[in-house]
Amino acid sequence: MSMIRDLRAVVRPALRKSTPVQPGYESTRDRSATSAVVDCAVYRDGRRLPQAACPTPRAAMREVLKDGGFAWIGLHEPTEAEFAGIAAEFGLHPLAVEDAVHAHQRPKLERYDDTLFAVFKTIHYVEHDELTATSEVVETGEVMCFTGRDFVITVRHGGQGSLRGLRHRLEDEPDLLAKGPSSVLHSIADHVVDGYIAVAAAVQDDIDLVESEVFAAPAGRGAPRGSDAGRIYQLKREVLEFKRAVSPLMRPMELLSERPMRLVDPDIQKYFRDVADHLARVHEQVMGFDELLNSILQANLAQATVAQNEDMRKITSWAAIIAVPTMICGVYGMNFDHMPELHWKYGYPMVMAAIFGACFTIHRTLRRNGWL
Q1: What is the DSSP letter of 109?
Q2: CA dist list (Å): 255 to 63, 95, 152, 261
Q3: Which residues pair with 118 in a beta bridge?
Q4: Mind listing the pLDDT tens digit for each residue in 215-262?
Q5: Element holding 39 (H helix, E strand)
Q6: pTM for this one?
Q7: What share of residues in the chain are helix, strand, coil (percent, to 5)?
Q8: Sheet holding 47-48, edge to edge
C-alpha cells in the first residue's frame, strides 16, 4: 500500500489553472540537429544508470540485454529516417512505426507480438484574457508509447505534453520504476488523464462565464441579440476537440484495467482502474459540456428571437398611431368642393383634437398591453 501511495504522489502533482496541464515543457533545442532523441536511459532496480553507460538507444539495449533492467527512450517528432534505426533495434511493428511518425492518430491500444502500442492525446488549456468568437481554448498534442518486456519508447508530437517532469519524479521513486516498463505506461496514462481533469475545470469556468452573460439580461428589453452565439459556437468546437481526445481512450483504459496482460505487472494493472475511473468522470463532464452548450445556444437564439419580436411590436404600434393622422389628413387633402369643415371656424382645432385624442388613446392602450 505504501508503494501505491508513492505512485499516486509521483504521477499526480498538484495542477492549477495557471499551469493547467503540463508544466515544464521541453524545447526542441534539447535534441541535436541529427536526432529526435531527447532522452535515453537504462533503469536497473528502479535506478537510472549513468548516462555514459548508454549514450545511444543501441547502447542502452545492449546494456539491458547484458545485465537486465529496461530502457526508456524519449523522442520528439522523429522523421522516418530518424526512427528507422530505433524501430529496427527494438523490433517495432511497421504499422505502429508509421502511426508514431505521422501522428494524428486516435487514442488507442494495440498489441504487436510482445509490444503494446498506446496512443494518448494530450490537451493543453490556452489562457486568454477574454473569450471571443475566435479564441483558441484547447490545444492538442500526442504521446505514443511502445511498451515491451525490457523497454519503453515514448514519441511526442506537438509543443505540449512533455514527459521530462514525470521522468524526473519517477526517478526519485526507485521502488516504482522497479516494477518495470508497465509502471511508466501507467504513469503516462495517469499524467495525461490528470491533464484532462485540469483542462475540464478551466473549460467549465469559460462555460459558466458565457452562461452567466447570456442570462444576465432578461428576455425582452436589453436582452442579448445573438451577439454571444459566435462565442458559444467556438466553445462547442473546442469541446468537440476535447471529446475527440477523451472518448476514444475509454476502451483502451478498460482493457488495461480489466484484461490480464503479460506486459503489465499485476501490481500495476489494478491501478489502471483508478485511471479509468478518472477518465470516465472527465468523459461525463465533456459530454455534459456539449449538452449544456447546446442549451445555452438555444436560449441565446431564443432571446434574440424575442428581442426581434419586441422590435416588430414597437414598429407595428407606432405605425398604428401614425395611421390615424395620416388617414384624417388624407381625407381633408382630397380637395372636394363641398366639405363644410373646411370653412368652419372651429374645423382645424377639432381635427387636431381628434388626431391627438385618437393617437393618445391608441398609445395608452398599446402601452398597457406591453407593446410599447
Answers
A1: E
A2: 32, 21, 19, 9
A3: 109, 145
A4: 775 544 444 455 578 888 888 989 999 999 999 999 999 999 888 888
A5: strand 37-44
A6: 0.74
A7: 55, 15, 30
A8: 47-48, 37-44, 70-76, 151-157, 138-147, 115-125, 108-112
